[in-house]
Design goal:
- With 266 residues, the chain is an alpha/beta fold.
- The chain has a single domain, classed as Purple Acid Phosphatase, chain A, domain 2.
- Helices cover 23% and strands 24% of the residues.
- The protein is built from 7 helices and 11 strands.
- Strand 2, helix 2 and strand 3 form a beta-alpha-beta unit.
- The longest helix is centred in the first third of the chain and has 16 residues.
- The protein is globular, with a radius of gyration of 17 Å.
- The C terminus is likely disordered.
């Protein structure tokens, strides 16, 4: 049995409490002896080299177990996308019985923090399908990207306002629904961040293979991370790793307790 952790939206460099929470997170992941850490973007707050250096120092003991994708905040400032995920926008990797597909959903327009929306092109979709086809039979197939493929509640009133004004910066990926539909029956998990509250969707495909779409939220804000135990290409169990808190944060627009799985969609 192996264990991976899903974390997201660290926003290192935003302020001292955030940096301290991320340091506690790295220590907790080491203590939990996880085999793999999946980080779905917004590693830095403004894409500055000093923030990237802080991340590298903090996660140095976990570096060989870490896989990540960039987020829109990582494209701001000096744009550290290439340091975080060098190479193509879509990449696949076999990690034992888990097959990981990483998708860079950011784009140059993310240089402006006001243009936070992601980008997923037809070419990206084709590459995703081609990479997923390489997954070994019986593997647990996991796709990770930063932006949410399906519509989710806004994090705050400001996002609702810009959406009403017609700006796309708070919206789901334009081709996100199509991505999900193409992966039904071929993929087990889609992991993302961007929205700072936890969320989960569960969809069924012909044959009964469930596809779960999981948003990690902002791990430093929530003070918890999902741990997934798996073997033989199947998820065996899950639990929550708490960062120095005995209880979950109280529900709010930014801090929501782990949701129950949504009813299965046909």
């Amino acid at each position: 049995m192996r264990t991976f952790a899903h974390i997201s939206d660290l926003h290192l460099g935003r302020d001292a409490p955030t940096d301290a929470a991320v340091e506690r997170l790295a220590e907790a992941l080491l203590a939990a002896e996880v085999d793999l850490v999946l980080l779905s973007g917004d590693v830095t707050h403004k894409g500055r080299p000093c923030e990237l250096e802080l991340f590298e120092r903090t996660f140095a003991p976990l570096r060989s177990r870490l896989r990540l994708v960039p987020g829109n905040h990582d494209r701001a400032g000096h744009d550290v996308r290439e340091q975080l995920m060098p190479g193509p926008r879509v990449q696949g990797e076999a990690l034992g019985e888990l097959f990981l597909v990483r998708v860079d959903s950011t784009a140059p327009h993310n240089k402006s923090l006001l243009d936070a929306h992601g980008e997923l092109t037809r070419e990206d979709l084709g590459e995703v399908e081609a990479v997923v086809e390489r997954a070994p039979r019986g593997a647990l197939v996991v796709l990770m990207l930063h932006h949410h493929p399906l519509k989710l509640p806004f994090d705050h009133v400001g996002e609702r306002l810009v959406s009403l004004l017609g700006w796309p910066c708070a919206e789901e990926l334009d081709l996100g629904q199509e991505l999900v539909e193409r992966l039904r029956g071929r993929c087990d998990l889609i992991l993302h961040g961007h929205r700072h509250a936890l969320a989960e969707r569960r969809l069924l495909a012909p044959g009964g293979r469930a596809l779960r779409v999981l948003n990690a939220g902002s791990t430093p804000e929530l003070r918890l991370a999902r741990l997934v135990m798996h073997a033989g290409g199947r998820i065996l169990s899950e639990r929550w790793l708490h960062l120095g808190e005995e209880r979950l944060p109280r529900p709010s627009a930014r801090r929501a307790p782990p949701p129950r799985a949504a009813p299965a969609a046909a």
